[in-house]
Amino acid sequence: MSVSIISLSQNDGETEYTDGVFIVNEDWYGHQNSTVNFITNGEEWIYRIFQKANPGKELGCTSQFGAIYGGKFYIVSKQEKDPGAKIIGSRLAVCNAKTMKCLKEIQKIATDEKGESIADGRSFLGVNEKKGYVGTSNGIWIYDMETMTVGKQIKGTGNPNGSDYGKLYHAQIGTMIRTEDYVFAIHQNDGLKIIDANADTLIKTIAPPTYYDKKKNKTLSRGFGSIVQSKDGNLWISVAYDVSGNGATVPYMIKMNPYTLETDTLHIPNDKGIEDVPNSWYAWTADGFCASTQENKIYWMGQNGNSWFKGRRIFCYDIDNNQFSKIYDFEKLPGKWIMYGTGFRIHPITDELYCFMFHKFQDPTHQLARISNKGEMLATYPMIKNYWFPALPVFPDNFDPEVKDIPTIECEKGGSDTIKLNDWVSDKDNMSVSIVKTLVENTDTKLFSATVKNGKLIVKSLNNKDGVGSVTVRFNSNGKIVDKKIAVKIGIGTGTDNISNDSHNIYMHDNTLFVENCLNYQVAVYDIYGRKVADIKITSNKYHRDMDLPKGIYIIRAIKEADIVTKKVINK
Whose CA, among 84, 288, 300, 420, lies 20 to 30 Å from 532? Predict the structure, then answer.
């Protein structure tokens, strides 16, 4: 592997899993609970790391999903115990993402009045530093990260068919995506659920397209399969033939603007050998559909009608160049290998594809393949023989978001200014469009308003007054937080100094403020964040004062009746 972050290390007897890739496994249904393996960048397999870190504990039955958020690893299983296992695990396990130490096990996400489960696990999404959403066979449930408990169901996301298990598998929640303002969740029957991420309320449901069935002589509904977000911020939704869960596909996907909700249809050219995007409501997996973090491209495991759970080829759509391509064909690889289940995911830093390979269900031979984004087979990593049935690669979150210094927002009185926040933040293992930005402080709500919407900070002057202040914006990348203070200047010296008389002279030298020809003016000194650091009455026309201020830029505002003098100075 080509990325080396931190060597696998032992601290106080604990192994740290930061240098490699996690593989969440369904494992052998009917015999044992699910497992997690780890392949190091040194090409060494470490097997069953959850059990290794937590003796006497196991995951639940058929783990299909894992997500790292805020330094924790959330592993979702369909049930809390495999029929052939001896240990009761969980539907939701919360672990330390570095050590795999189990912090919480939740056996039942939701229950009826008899205490019986009414929601099998599907997916998990970190929403903010305080909460996450758990996708299930019966709606979306809110997970409290502080108390580590599951609370209420989001109204309108549930299964209308009742609590009978057979019915529950006809209106499941699948993949969920967090954007700047909303959560987009795929519902098997209803289509796309759009949720206010702050209020935890359903604001809109977008139904799948319809089609006319000639045999039945009526209009029927397609279904949605999965959803991904590309580097340009747009959403891409795969389309199922119908809502029955039989795995059938159609040759197109839907592109959606996450801000306006406008859609376009992208047709998949089957006649050029490009296969449809798969769906797996019949026995839900996270689906072989994902996006590159490094390039504006989406990838999928082709669905050509061969069989459920199996894939033979990986395809790509280059969004910027509007080009489809076949990345890799496993049928050309010696040994009769095919892909299992979800099939693959893309490394957020190297842009390499990590693919699950097996022969057939009756053969316990599995291996992991690493393929470049150009379709070159880079390496294969055989596993010890076991019916692993890998579900999903999960990549460690080793980097924090980085926010550049954002310049002062300058508005004329009565005006406004807008900053595209994506231009100022980056994360080596995440897309800037996937970093959630929120406003956490406005120091002067009477002077100006501030909002963060659609990834933009918008500041508007209020009451036709001038002054200075600041706002603080929070950048949340996979649960890692950076708060950034941004100075705001309204009216006074926005862009240029405001000197009403050529005789006025204001400057700083050696941490001393000099104010000339401003007798009886009242002077206020502000730092770049809008904080007043000094208030001075000028008592002579040759006034000076030692300031004892840190190096930096300051705004000097001198007032005498209707005369206002502003000056930007640098304390070197």
Answer: 420
